[in-house]
Write a structure and sequence with these properties.
The protein is of the alpha/beta class. The chain has ten helices and nine strands. It is 37% helix and 20% strand. The strands form two sheets. The chain has a six-stranded parallel β-sheet with strand order 1-4-3-2-5-6, sandwiched between helices. A three-stranded antiparallel β-sheet has the order 7-8-9. The structure holds adenosine monophosphate (AMP).
C-alpha cells in the first residue's frame, strides 16, 4: 500500500496503472460503512485508491472541523487489510493552495434537506470530489447510500460536466441495533447512543405505512415526527418524504421516493434515509 501526500505523486502513479481504477473518497476515522465501499471497489477494479481528507470547504463556521475525529494509524491498518493500493492523504494546502478560487455549484437538488441546515455544504463537497476525480481519474467512484443527497448531487455533477466515470452507490451499513454507522457516532454518550435508534425506527415506520398503502406523504411525515418527538433527547432538523430523483417534497407518494431525516442528539447531528420503492 502506497501512502501519497501530493497530487504530483498520484498523477505519476496513475500513469502506471493499467485496467480499472476504483476511488473511495473519505474523511477518515473509518468504520465498516467505509470498508463496505472499499471492499466493493476491491472486487470491481484492478487498482483501489482511497482518499482521506477532512475537507474544510464543506464545514460551516459553527461546525466540527477542528474536533472531527481522526485516527490515521488505525485507518491505514484497516485499509491495508482490505488490500488498498494507494491512500491519498493530502494537506489542506495541497488541495486549497493560496489563491484557490474555483468552485463547483450543483443547483436545484442541493437547495433542500441538508443544504437548509448546512449552507455551502454541497459546494464544498462537489468541489473537492471534482478535484479528486481530476487528480485520480478513476473508472468508478464509490459513495454510500447513507448520504443519499450527496450521492444524487455527485451523479448530477458527473452527468452535467461530462465526467468520464461511473458512480456506484453502496447500501448503508448499520450497527446491530440499526443505527447507521457514522464517524460522528463517537460524539454520543451511552444514553444518547440508545436514543439514536429512533432514526431507524422512524424510517421503518415510514416504510411500513407506505407498504400498507399510505400514499399521503404529509401523513407519513406526521407519524415519523410524532414518533421522534417521543424521544426527549432527539431534536428534529428535518423529516422528509421526497421524490427519489429531485428530492422535492411530495404530497402524494406515487413513484420512487426517499424517506430521510436529520436529528440532533447531544452534540451529534445524525442523518439517515430509506428508499420507498
Ligand atoms: P465520510 O468519511 O463520512 O465522508 O464518508 C465517506 C463515504 O462513506 C461516503 O460516500 C459515505 O456516504 C460513506 N459512508 C459513510 N457511512 C456509511 C455507512 N454507514 N454505510 C455506507 N456508506 C457509508
Amino acid at each position: 500500500m502506497q501512502l501519497v501526500e501530493t497530487i504530483a505523486h498520484v498523477r505519476e502513479l496513475r500513469r502506471q496503472f493499467s485496467g480499472s481504477v476504483g476511488l473511495v473518497p473519505t474523511m477518515g476515522y473509518l468504520h465498516e460503512g467505509h470498508l463496505a465501499l472499499v471492499r466493493q471497489a476491491r472486487n470491481e477494479n484492478s487498482t483501489v485508491v482511497v482518499s482521506i481528507f477532512v475537507n474544510p470547504a464543506q464545514f460551516g463556521p459553527s461546525e466540527d472541523l477542528a474536533s472531527y475525529p481522526r485516527d490515521l494509524e488505525r485507518d491505514l491498518k484497516l485499509l491495508d487489510e482490505q488490500k488498498t493500493d494507494v491512500v491519498f492523504m493530502p494537506s489542506d494546502e495541497e488541495m486549497y493552495p493560496l489563491g484557490f478560487s474555483s468552485w463547483v455549484d450543483v443547483e436545484k437538488v442541493t437547495e433542500r434537506l441538508e443544504e437548509a441546515s448546512r449552507p455551502g455544504f454541497f459546494r464544498g463537497v462537489a468541489t473537492v470530489v471534482a478535484k479528486l476525480f481530476n487528480i485520480v481519474q478513476p473508472t468508478k467512484a464509490y459513495f454510500g447510500q447513507k448520504d443519499a443527497q450527496q450521492a444524487i448531487v455527485i451523479k448530477r455533477m458527473v452527468a452535467d460536466l461530462n465526467m468520464d466515470l461511473e458512480i456506484i452507490v453502496v447500501p448503508t451499513v448499520r450497527e446491530n441495533d440499526g443505527l447507521a454507522m457514522s464517524s460522528r457516532n463517537v460524539y454520543l454518550n451511552s444514553e444518547e447512543r440508545q436514543a439514536a435508534t429512533i432514526l431507524l425506527k422512524a424510517l421503518t415506520l415510514a416504510k411500513e405505512l407506505w407498504q400498507g398503502g399510505e400514499k399521503d406523504a404529509e401523513k407519513i411525515r406526521y407519524q415519523m415526527t410524532s414518533l421522534i418527538q417521543k424521544e426527549p433527547l432527539a431534536q428534529i432538523d428535518y423529516v422528509s418524504i421526497a421524490d427519489a430523483d429531485t428530492l422535492e417534497e411530495l404530497k402524494v407518494v406515487d413513484g420512487p421516493a426517499l424517506a430521510s431525516l436529520a436529528v440532533r442528539i447531544g452534540k451529534a447531528r445524525l442523518i439517515d434515509n430509506m428508499p420507498l420503492g
